[in-house]
Amino acid sequence: DWTSAAFVETTIADLQAQIGDDKVVLALSGGVDSSVAAVLLHKAIGKNLHCIFVDNGLLRKNEYESVLEQYKDFGLNIKGVDAKDRFLGELAGVEDPETKRKIIGRVFIEVFDDEAHQIQDVKWLAQGTIYPDVIESVSVKGPSATIKSHHNVGGLPDFMKLKVVEPLKSLFKDEVRRVGTTLGLESFILGRHPFPGPGLGIRIIGDVTPEKVAILQDADQIYINNLKEAGLYDKIWQAGAIFLPVRSVGVMGDERTYENVIALRAVESLDGMTADWCHLPYDVLAKISNEIINKVKGINRVVYDISSKPPATIEWE
Ligand code: XMP
């Protein structure tokens, strides 16, 4: 007997009672949860909600621009922060996956804290935490978890002194999507595949360079667009391309090439905890492979990941 309309109505009233005329800051990621949390809060407290969307340079191709545009259309009070150079600068030469994750998490907090600091008299930090994040909080990764894990560490950033509001804390993912639909969010946001907080930074195996990011963005865009054209995108839990720091020999015309490999990953899952690789049709895979190899300079080979979780994780790092 749970209905999204009733949830929206009660939650808006609760948020208004809880927050009053205080200002709230929220980090938007472009994902479903933070977007739904933002729109819900916006309905409740309007311009007192200040959203911050950080471009870490590790987003999908054109993601920053298109997502920012969507949010503005929604009337959200949002500030985009271009921190690409800062993230990529700090990542330069770093190969270890956990170190990369920690750097991305730390820089995110620094950038977000700087920005939150510029809003006068903020009292609350809103987060798009959902129920599975609460119960799996030990294994959850990403900005929100990073914020939590910093609780016990000395020298807290300023925004840690804020009170926390988490309007989606009792909901499962499908309920969050239904709430989003009730709020009028489009499938452009609601139907998106999960995307990790560290973004393409953990889909480039080994060290991250701006050149590798550009190659991976192009390959990933071809992959995702083809899945959409084939009507497969919505049937897949999550898909993405991975840049492998492996070079292999190929031929192009009369020339010998020696270039990098792109791996494609697509999985079916209910909650991300376990996952099966998708049996994508061969003709779709063939088209994607041809298009990537023909159009993306620096790639001469495409492979498909046929590993399930466990033991393979969804992300490669
Ligand atoms: P794994 O790779 O552990 O991923 O099988 C399970 C799900 O979690 C996502 N994931 C992340 N999400 N921050 C996030 O917000 C992260 O650091 C992170 N790492 C993995 C992954 O994309 C998949 O949906």
TrEMBL record:
Identification of the protein by name: GMP synthase [glutamine-hydrolyzing]
Coiled-coil boundaries: none
Subunit field text: Homodimer.
Binding site for ATP: S29, G30, G31, V32, D33, S34, S35
Role of this protein: Catalyzes the synthesis of GMP from XMP.
GO molecular function annotation: ATP binding; GMP synthase activity
Reaction catalysis annotation: XMP + L-glutamine + ATP + H2O = GMP + L-glutamate + AMP + diphosphate + 2 H(+)
EC number(s) stated in the UniProt entry for this protein: 6.3.5.2
Keyword Nucleotide-binding: yes
Entry GO CC: cytosol
Membrane spanning residue stretches: none
Domain GMPS ATP-PPase: 2-192
Superkingdom as given in the UniProt entry: Bacteria
Keywords of this entry: ATP-binding, Glutamine amidotransferase, GMP biosynthesis, Ligase, Nucleotide-binding, Purine biosynthesis
Pathway where this protein functions: Purine metabolism; GMP biosynthesis; GMP from XMP (L-Gln route): step 1/1
Organism, as annotated: Pedobacter rhizosphaerae
